[in-house]
Known about the structure:
disordered N terminus
Amino acid sequence: MGTPTSGGGRHRRRLRIALPVTAAAVAAAVAGALLTSSAQASEAPPTPVRSGPSLAELQKRIAGALAGDDLPGQTASKASLSASTGATTVDPKIIGGTTTTITTAPWMAQLWYSDNRGTSSTSDDIGFFCGGAVVAPTKILTAAHCIKGYDWKAHGSVVTGTSQLPTGTDLHGGTASGVWRQWYHPSYNAATIDNDVAVLTLPNPVKATPIRMTTNLDSTSYKVGTQATVYGWGRTSSTSEDISDNLKAATLPIQADATCSNYYGADYIKGHMVCAGTPATGSDTGTTSACNGDSGGPLVVDNRIVGVVSWGVKDCVESGAYSVFAKMSTYVGPSYPRVDDTNLSGDHLADLWVRSSSTQTGYELDSKGSSLAARVSWGTWSGFNIVLQTDLDRDGYQDLLLRRSSDGDVFWKHFVPASGTWATQLIGDNWKTRRAIVTPGDVTGDYLPDLLAVDSTGVLWTYPGKGNGTFSAPVKVGSGWNQYNFVRGHGDFTGDGKADLLARNSSTGAVYLYPGTGTAGTTAFSARIKVATWSSTTYNAFAAVGDVSGDGRADFLARTPGGTLYLYKGTGKASTAIFATRVSLGTTFKQYDIFG
């Protein structure tokens, strides 16, 4: 992207960072006047344990990556992407772009990886760089080839809030973070560079303004000729390995799938990939393209990510070539659950909170995928009749929403990392008659967690979250919801990246799926779909806590009157096949009266 700057005369970085081988009552909240209040119970939640590496360690990792000369995903091998050279290494950069600022792209992130392999020799060191985008305060969207095969928690550093690459220990106003956990698409194929999306979770939120991914139904952004913008710090010339010290942007027209297939043949996978740009000229002159170092960065249309920099031809300027991106309308479904995957134990598996009816003791039951670990006590939780898991402030720590039995007041209980303590705030006054309260995640499509409630007349309301524990004015969704004796939801049951609901008819036992649309008001959910019949004699308690199994789909928990708890793993299908065959999690759950 443009001509490399001298960097003030200092030694140029020689990072060969490229793509792999070819290839009504929440009045207090509505008014913004949340009250700090005691929930009048002796709750004693355990303190979450989460720590990232020191700044000195992060700086050491950055320095190691700066000195590196490796390709992320370099073990991948695609045959014949470059017809002229037969090269098996594909790399993206931005050639022909212009310098931009972090104010223009506040969500941009630098991903630095350095591993000395535990030896004194430097010959086996790994050091490389990728781009990424902040899609939530603790979440970075990037490419799978930058993540798979690497331990980012042990060796990675993420820098946000700056348009400049580090100079020694100077981050130029940016903030360095460690990585808490990593996820890449389970079907990522290093040989074909297919399904090339990943998400890093940071240990604490960053201040950078997030950008949203596009929706699964987006077709407008992919129309031929649509002007898209790619951002990155990648190589600025096909004849040099130098990457840019400053953030660059380039405008690329979206190309037709047929155009991409004509050039790349079977290497280009329609529906999973999108290509953009004008045909490369064979040299830097006249070429505008992503290149090495831009890997994992975003392709943006109308302030939404429509693609992730994935691959291209070696040196990026081969005559007739285009830049290739993972198509985000295809991958928002599996990626979004990772944006909303907070849980009690801090892994990718949603956990279950329960309360003993006899002792009023609350317990954490951590998921092991298809079973639950031994329970962990949270102390006495008397005086409540609803406990729900959520993350209203999007800080990556699991919050609880509580309703007090005596007066119906609703509280938000959340961990405050700065003080190492739990805070309790009143968010709803006198919700005693609410027939249902649900914390499904993002209903309105803004990546901020919302709250739903069914009032005494059967009207369902959405309370759009602001991402800080407060809500905008409630919006009516519809009436008739008093026919249901349970309304539950947490996450995406259908695999489209939108939060859904499940509801059971109290007289017939029919269970209905309400697919989310990502909008507010009467269009928040599509027409209901009957997915099961579960009478009260079949199940008498339910919980929707998110992705228990860790496969990216929301799951469901149901308890029989006899006390057997079953896990229904989601399939992503909006039909009677919505869940796989149930799995028993144990037979001793009759003792619990609250399932959060």
